[in-house]
Amino acid sequence: MRTIALGLAAVLTLSGAAPARSPVDDHASALAALADVRAAVAEIVRIEDGYAVGHGAYLRAAHRAMNALVGRRDDGYAKSFGDPGDGVGTLGHLDLMLDKAGTSLWTPAVQGAKANVLAAAEDLQSALAQKEMEEYQADLTRALASLALVVGRPSQSGVLGGLSGALANTSLGVPLGALSASGCAAPVRAPAYGVVAGRLAYVALPRSAASAGIPDDLSVARVVVQGDMVVLYTHAARDAAALCRSASRLQRTRSVVASPSQISYTVAQARAGAAVYRRYCLQCHGADLQGTAGPSVAGADFVATAQRNSWSLSDLRTTVFENMPFSNPGSLTPKQYAGVMAFLLASNCYPSGAKPFPPTASPSFAKVKLAAVPRAKPANAKLGTCPVK
Amino acid sequence: MSRIALGLIVLTGLVAAVLVGGSPQVGAQGAWPTSDSYVNADKDAASWLLPARNYSGNRYLSETEITPANVGTLKKAWSANVDARGPLETSPIVWNGTMYVTSSHNDVYALDAKTGAVKWHFPYKPHVIAFSANRGVALSDGKVYEGTLDGHLIALDATSGKPVWNVVAAHDLTNTFYTMQPVVYKNMVLLGASNGDWGGIGYISAFDAATGKRLWDWNTIPGPGEAGHDSWSGDSWKRGGGAIWSGIAIDPATNTLYADTGNPQPDFLGTIRKGANLYTNAMVALDIGGSKPALKWYRQFIPHDTHDWDPAMPPVLFTGTVNGAPRNLVAAGDKGGNFWVLDAGTGALVYRLAVSTQKGQNTEPNRKGNIACPNTNGGVEFNGGSYMPETNAFYVPSVDQCGIWKSQGTATYVAGQFYLGGSFPALYGPSTGYVNAVDIGTGKFMWRKHLAFPQIGGALSMSPGLVFTGGVNGDFTAYDAKTGNVLWHYATGMTIQAPPGSYVIDGKRYVVVAAGPAGVNFADPRLNKGAPTLEGSYKHPTSATITAFTLP
After folding, report:
1. Cα distance from B528 to chain A (closest Cα, Å)?
2. Domain B32-442+456-550 adopts which CATH fold?
3. Over the stretch A157-215, which tens digit does the pLDDT of each residue have?
4. Which residues touch B49 (CB under 8 Å, ≥6 apart)?
5. Domain at A267-367, CATH homologous superfamily
6. Which of residues 66 through 85 in chain A touch B, CB cutoff 8 A?
7. Residue of A nearest to B422 (CA)
C-alpha cells in the first residue's frame, strides 16, 4: 500500500501544474496556455530588444521560449536553460483541452492555436541551429508571427480569434464554478455569464466591480447598465440572439431527440464519411462493407467479432485514425477520419445524434464497448447493416 | 498410446507406398505424387508440385522450348476467373493435367491445365481477421491441403473437391490465421502461422497428412528456460511475434527445414521488449528428422527490429559459385531492403546487398515521427526470387518506398486488433520498384531495372536465359536474364502479387500467373486512376484471373 501511494504521489508531482482536476477546468487551462505564450513572447522580445553579445544568450532565449511553449514533458524541453512558463507549457495545456469527448464551439480555435504553437516551436528549433544572426532573427520573427495568431484577438471568434477570441466569445470564458445562465434572457443577477449553445453572449458584473475596470480579455461590443449591474455584451451576442430566436421556433414545432448512448455522430457527417469511404476504404472493405482484401467493418460478422474480442469504440477509432488506409496510414484529415467513423457507426445501425463524432480522441471511448444495437432494424437483414442514404 | 499411434502411422505409410508403387504415376486416375516425386520435382518437366517447384524453394526451370529468341511470340492460351474479393497470391500446383489454385478467401479451384475449364470448385466463407490472402495449396496422396483465414487446415479430395477432413489448426483464433502455402514432406503437412502484427506468437506446425492430427509445433519465441529467452525483457516474449508467414525450403538429404521468422511485437515500440528478441527477423534451420524439431542454427537479420522489416522472402537453397568455387548457399530478403546470402550448412553470412533505398534505419520510431526507408511494405516482399546456374545470378524484385514512422509510449493488447505500439508508417515520397539481378560471384548487381510500381510478384527464371515477373500495375514481363532487357510483356489489367509457374501439357510448355485486385498493402491510389503499363492504362479490376501463356 505504502509503495503504491508513494508512486501515485510521484506521478502527480511529475505532471506538475496539471494535477488531476475534476471537473477539468478548460477556462483555467486556456488562461495558463495564454500565460505561457506570453512568457515565450516576452523572452523573444527581450533578446531582440537587448544588446546581448555572444551566441549563448541567444540560444538561451530560444530555449527558454521553447520551454514555455512545449512544456517539460516534450522531447524539445531543455531543462538547464530554465522555464519562464509554468512547466506544463502551452502545448500541454492545449492538449489537455483537446483530449476529451466531443467538441465545443471553441475546439477549432484551440486546434488552430495548437497548430500555430507547433509552427512557432519549429521556427525556434530552426533558430537554435542557425549560425548567422540574420537567420536567427528571421526564425524568431516567424515564431513571433505564429504566436501572435495563438494569442489572437478578442473581437473575433473561430480560428481567427485565437485563444483570446475563444475566451472572449465562447463558453471557454466562463471560469469554473461561476454562475452560467441562459444567454437568451437578460441577466437577473451578477456576476453571471450568459451562454447560448457555446457562445458567450454577455458577462454581467456588479456595478462596484465594473467601476474598477473592464477585464482585459473581454471583447465588449455593447455596454448596458441594468440596475445594480453592468452587462457587457460580447461580439458573439448578436449571433447568440439569432440562435435564441430560431431555437424558440424549433421548440414550438418538434421536440429534440437525444442520442441514447455516448456514441454520437450526425447524419450529414455519416453522408460525408460515406464519400470518404468510397474513395479511400471501399477498395479493400467493399461496397457492402463485408470486406474484400480487408476484413468486414459493419454488420453481423463485424459486430460478432467486436463482441467476441470485447472491442471498444476507442479500439475502432485507433485502427481507423492511425492505421488506415493500410497502404498509407494517417494520410486523411481528422475531419475525414471522423466522417468515416460516423459512416461506420451508421452502417452498424447506431442511431445518429445532435453532436458530430469528434475529430479528437476521448478517454471515454475506451469505456464504450461495441455491440449490436438494441431494437435496431438493419435495412439489409442478410448482412445486418444499415446503409447510409 | 503414443507407441500405438506411431505404429499406425508407419503402417499407413507402408500401405500408401505399396499402392502408389503398384500403379502408373501419370495418366491414370488415382495416381498421385509420392515422396520421391517431391524430392525429384525438378526433374519432372510437366508438373509443378511444390510452391516454388522444388524443396529448395528455387523458382527455376531447366528447359529449352521458350527462349530469349522466341519469347516475344508468347500468347495467352487461356484465362480463368476466380473469386475476386481480394488479391490473388496463389502459386499454382500442376499435376497430371490439373492445376490447383486458391482465391484470397480460400476458395479452391481445380482447373484443366490445358483449357482453364473448372473441374471443381470448393467455396469457403471464412471470417477474415486481418486481410484476405492465400498463397496456394499442397497436393499429396489424393488430397489437396489448404490453411484458411479462420485458422483451419482443410483436406479436400483432389478428384472431387469434397472435404475429407477439416481441423482447427491455429491455437488462438482471435489473432492467428493462415496465408502460407502448406508443404508436404514425408507424412507431414507443414504450415506456419500468420499472426505477426496482431499479438500472437509465431510457430510452425506439422500435421499428419492422412488425418490432420497435430504432430508437433515449433515456437519461434523461446519460452522460460529455453536458449534465447533472455533476449526478451520481462514478459514481453509472451506476445513477441515472429510469425512464419512465407514459404519454407527443405534439404531432404539432411532433413533440414529452412524458415524465415517475422518481426517482433509490438512492431514499432522497442522500449518494452529490450534485447535482440530472438528468434524474430531471422532464418532458422531446423532438423525435422526426429519426433520434434531441433534448432540447428539461426541467423538474425535485424535484431530488435522496430520497423516491421521482417524477412518476407521465402528461403532459397542453391549451389552458387562464390570466388570461383561452388558453395551451398541459402538466400533471404527482408522488408528492410536487404538481400542476404548465407552458407546453407552453418548460416554464416556470405554477403548482404541493399536492393531498396535505405535511410534512417537506426532510429527507433518516436512520438514525433521520423523518416526511414524502406516503408513497411518495401524492400523484398513475400514472393522472393530465384537463382539461375547459367548466369550464376539471383533474380529478386524489390519495392522502393519510404515512410514516416511513429510510436506511442505504450502498447495494449486487444484481441483481434493490431498490436503495434504505434501506427503503420505513412507513405513518404514515391512508391516504385526494382527487378534486381545479383551476381552471386561478387555479391554486386549484374543489372537492375527501376520500374514505376512496386514489384512483389516473385521471379521465375528459365535456363535459356529468361526471367518472368509481374508488377503491381499488372505488367507481366519477361526479361533477358543477362541484360535485363524487356523481351516480352503482357498487361493483365490487374495487380500481380502472385509468383509465376510453368508446366508442360501435350508437349507444349505453359507459363502461368495469377492477377487480381490489389491487396491491402498495395492499394495504390494510382491504380484507380488508370496507371500506366507497358501496353496502356491499368484498369481497376472487377475480376481475378489465372492466365496461362504458351508459344503459338
Report:
1. 9
2. Methanol Dehydrogenase; Chain A (2.140.10)
3. 778 889 999 999 998 988 877 777 788 888 888 888 888 888 899 998 888 877 777 77
4. B33, B37, B38, B41, B93, B94, B95, B139
5. Cytochrome c-like domain (1.10.760.10)
6. 75
7. A322
